[in-house]
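Sample intake sheet
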Amino acid sequence: MIAANNTRSTNNDPVESSESSPITGAANGGSSRLMRQFGSLFQPAQQRNDPAGYVEFGSISEGDAHSGRTLGTFAGVFCPVALSMFSALVFIRVGFIVGNAGLYVTLLQFVIAYVILLFTVSSVCAISTNGAVEGGGVYFMISRTLGPEFGGSIGTLFFLANIVGCGLAISGCAEGLIQNFGPTDGGDVGSIPDGRWWRFLYCSSINTVMLLVVLIGAEMFAKTSMMILGVVVVCLLSTYVSFLSMGPMEVAIPVENDLVQNATNKALGSYTGLNMSTLAANLYSHYGQDYTSSGNAVNFAVVFGVLFSGVTGIMAGANMSGELKNPSRSIPSGTLSAVLFTFLCYIALSVLMAATTSTFLLQNNFLFLGPVNLWPTFVTIGILTATFSTGLSNLIGSSRVLEALAKDRVFGSLLNFVVRGTFKSNPIAAVIASWALVEAILLIGSLNTIAQINSVLFMLSYLATNLACLGIEITGAPNFRPTYKYFTWHTAFIGMVGTGVMMFVINPIYASCSVTLCLLLVFALHFFSPASQGAQWGSISQALMFHQVRKYLLMLDSRKDHVKFWRPQMLLLVSSPRSCCPLIHFVNDMKKGGLYVIGHVKVGEFSENDSSNDPTIEEYTQWLSLIDHMKVKAFVELTLSKSVREGIQHLIRISGMGAMKPNTIILGFYDEEQSKDFFEHENSPYKTAEFDDNGIKLFPFRRSGEQKPLLATDYVQIIDDVLRMKKNICLCRHFHRLDKQMIARSNHIRYIDVWPVNIFEPKNEDPFDVVSQFMMQLACIINMLPVWKRLELRVFLCESESQPEPSAPFERPAEHRLSMLLKSLRISASIHQIPEWGKDMDVSRHRNILKQFTSQSDSNQVMTEENVNRSKLYMQRVNQIIRDKSNATAVTFMYLPAPPKLSTIDYKEKCHHYLGLLTELTYDLPPTILVHGINSVMSTTL
């Protein structure tokens, strides 16, 4: 393999061939572990007592072996979801919704909300039945689908949504306490006092009780959720019975409602019982003011925000994924049945309220259900149990999400206290942190205001869940095979659009702030999170990019290529990157947004009798790590071949895809200079110990005194192969001297030089041929980049014969033509004449001699020792001229003549002399690129 600075192929090196690979270890050492973990997949359904006869991934979750997975569908999913969806809404705020929006709009809002929920549940079911679901619930599902950046940001917002939801439930619980045990009928006497800070005290007390429950027995709460739900259902049934049996009555307006209440006239609202007139009056909207939030005006958005906040508990079952015996079965069936059950309950409650209660009472007493109930105590019990259980569920859910974020190291060491603060699988530190944030939310005070924030945050979480499923379905990932069959990309799309639109309908400011916070978290986690570099979760972004790249590659047609849009697509052939780091970086600058492939040939045979793996597979990850270390935008191509020359032919043919294939091949120069290890050199910007594995150096290179594995003849033949394969070629020498940092800060280095003359066959037309134009194109590209931009581009004009009188003062015809060419090509460069070229050098006498060593040679022409010596002296003289002009040059572009043809006499000798003359020509120059282009790459037209 050819590399810069005379590095050699490391093929068949005992150090390299004995290298073990982490990939091999994972494939072999991990197989038994995988068989143990997923062994049940390969058993017949009858042996696994599976009457359905099919495999469900969630049933083999790693946690099955743990005693913590004890919950079934009803206790673990249905009950938590139903309780969370009842929350503070069912007994406290349905009257507020019906009284302001009217029955028609209320039913419409419930349908909209539940359609959004239903489609989101479909997405949750699809994800949860597509693999083993572990602890962390929705965060776990989203992060393992969208990747650490999106998953971490959405998980953070979902954590905050649970915090706000807990605050909402606690506020509802405190409101129920005040209504039943606080001052009544305008008096100041009650079992408990009332006021803003008294309410905050009650909320804090409830929050602290929840904290103690979660710290002591959170699992017990999950197991007793059936009993809690039973209590709530009984209380709700008492409400239905009361609506059907209670007659007309007057109900007092709460004392805190100063919109209609005053000291002298105590306002009363009418409860009419079942009455068609009452129903007719409540069919249409009558938006008023919210007496719990300083009389703020009520509208469709406010009402829907309150409504949706009460039904956001669809993820409560998924949050219990770590405790479910069979998450992939329990989550879909339990969640869907709970959604249907609560929907029917809400519709029945809304219709009965509209048919029995006046609009005035609905708008001005949110807790009127107590006075109109046959057993008022049942409403009190229902409010307290529903809100307390919902708040407890949200507190548990938020602590589990925070624990999952900490274990995944999404925020690095910032959440280490959560991991360390775990006792008997209970995340004590996460629970306390969640409790503290809930306290901050409670300072907001108004339940309706908290409800809007809660709705927006949950909607954003639902949007991300639908987006995850939509992305997977669009990309057609083969491994996305959920056992839940009622999911399509249409359901995910409708759910995503619905949540996005309604989020902004509820409150555009809160929605904008949430989306902005989410995007900021995405960028922050992408650049700073350790999880984004290390977590192997699978990222939807990779699948989407693959899908789009494949589509556009098929659309990219090489038959439609045009010179105006030409760009260099580089294949850099490298033996050992240790010795050519500056060249790797330089080619990265020169690609100008084009394809960049780093290719390597490993010499060897892939024998049928050889049981070992392909060594290029084992080394591929090492080369990817090199790309990361070098910070270049390149692909890697490795091949195994019997010879370097044959391997390079393979790389040229197979590198790239479709119309994106390399058009320019770059090789290091073949000389005797000692290589330099840039990974070990003290002052090297590429210094690293990353590629030293227990004393074994990865990417070894030729040491001093070691024989080259590639002959000079083979090297010249490779150049000829490249040109015959219709590719441009560049030979790079002295790039171990390139120091971009020095170029950036040094005032001494000022130029990029172009010598557009074929030294082997100089003509006045040289600056205008294809090779010279290709050379100037590459120089122009380099001169566009920030580090190189301050350098001046110089073009040297070498006139070898006497010229006629100039047509313009101080300007020869060749110089004039070159000046016009540069102008038409929009290249800003200065032209420099070389007077000594025509005076001191007999170019015409050497031209025929030098032609012997190129493709222009006569196959019957025999070399003589005298001609060889004269050619070397001539090259040394040319080299001296160039060196005299290169004092302040950063990089030099020179004309590479085509090598001698294989059919010529004394081919091997001519190859040696051809290479020797190039060595003499470039001796002791700055970093130099010998260029040979085969096609026109510049355009003077629009």
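Comment: Confidence is low (pLDDT under 50) at residues 1-67, 805-810. The two ends are 41 Å apart (CA to CA).
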